[in-house]
Amino acid sequence: MKYFTRNIGVHTGTATFYLHEPTAEIDIDRKYPVMVVVPGGAYMWTSDRESEPVALEFFSKDYHVMVVNYSTEGLAAYQDVAALPIDPTSKFPNPLVEVAEAIADLRENAEEWAVDTDQISVLGFSAGGNLTGLLAVYWHESWLEELVNKDRTLYKPNRIILAYAPLDFVGIHFEESSAINLALMGTLTPGTEERKKVSPIYHVSKDTPPVFLWHTTEDPLVSVENSLKMAVALQEKNIPYELHIYQKGVHGVSLGDSRTSRKPNQSNKQAASWVELVMGWLG
After folding, report:
1. Can you name the CATH fold of 2-282?
2. Which residues pair with 122 in a beta bridge?
3. pLDDT for the residue 260
4. Burial class (CB in 10 A: 0-12, 13-18, 19+), 15
5. Domain spans of the chain?
6. DSSP-assigned letters across all residues of the chain
7. Of 157, 153, 118, 116, residue with least CA distance to 134
8. d(CA 127, CA 192)
9. Coiled-coil region(s) at which residues (predicted)?
10. 5, 216, 227, 259: which could join 53 in a potential S-S bond, CB 3.0 to 4.6 Å?
11. In this structure, are residues 247 and 232 in contact, taking their beta carbons and an 8 Å threshold?
């Protein structure tokens, strides 16, 4: 296995790679599909629980994996109201540019790294799911291509997987003076246009790639309505999708077992089935 980390963007973002190495004993010409993992953390940090354990799960299923730790200020920066960050590095579209750059890196090095460039899936959890959703709806936009300074086809996602993601900051998630408003939108009191800009459900188009969504109805932090409304938006645009809703489960289930359970209630045998469901969907 090749394991290494690269800096991405102009802030503090990094991409960590877990790459198989083709061997003549199996298939020296093999090209591997890629799972790009985008962890959550309310745009204030990136969760360890949604990073390496998830990477190793998909690596074991014969995928290359890249974990994108997009730029954040760190959770400590949001603990003192008097010293909140004025212009956070996590502000949209900075993390989106970083994820796009990281995916472009995969395609630019596809020959050396044995990458199947038609099989690059992006998996986002929670806030990382919001970011992944934004990539899904904005990858084809000229303004993003200018910011990334690379051809948009280099960072086009082939498949999108959204795990308990906040996808609507207009009709579902909006709370005055919420720290995530500052981390994502750069202000504690964003207007409707700022909130709509970072809400993927309002920007689904014919260019949005196929999407797999999963959520729990009991999630107390990110309402299941996000995934339900996203499914409707995809249906209206005739975008292929698959939706799985589990009844039981708190926010942040991740893999649903002891590898990613910080608390007992984060283990969820039923919701843990999402991994196999994703593999079936990916075919």
Report:
1. Rossmann fold (3.40.50)
2. 36, 160
3. 72
4. buried
5. 2-282
6. -EEEEEEETTTTEEEEEEE----TTT-TT--EEEEEEE--STTTS--GGGSHHHHHHHHTTT-EEEEEE-----GGGGS-GGG--SS-TTSTTHHHHHHHHHHHHHHHTHHHHTEEEEEEEEEEETHHHHHHHHHHHHTT-HHHHHHHTS-GGGS--SEEEEES----TTTT---TT-HHHHHHHSSSS--HHHHHHT-GGGS--TTPPPEEEEEETT-SSS-THHHHHHHHHHHHTT--EEEEEESS--S--TTSSTTS-SSGGG--TTGGGHHHHHHHHH-
7. 157
8. 19
9. none
10. 259
11. no
Distance CA 201, CA 144 (A): 18
The angle formed by the CA atoms of residues 190, 97 and 201, to the nearest 5 degrees, is 50
Contact criterion met (CB below 8 Å) for 44 and 74 = yes
CA distance 10 to 38: 18
Q: Give me the chain's average pLDDT, please.
A: 94
Give the model confidence (pLDDT) of 103-148 as tens digits: 999 999 999 999 999 999 999 999 999 999 999 999 999 999 999 9
Token pair for residue 25? Answer: 């004993």
- Indicate the DSSP class of residue 48: G
Output the six-digit token pair for 101.
């750059």
Is residue 246 within 8 Å of residue 270, measured between CB atoms?
A: yes
**Helix, strand, or coil (residue 33):** strand
AA identity, residue 231:
A
pLDDT in tens, 16-65: 999 999 999 989 999 999 999 999 999 999 999 999 999 999 999 999 99
Query: In this structure, which long-range contacts are made by residues 78-81, counting pairs with CB atoms below 8 Å and at least 24 apart in sequence?
Result: 78/44, 78/179, 78/182, 78/183
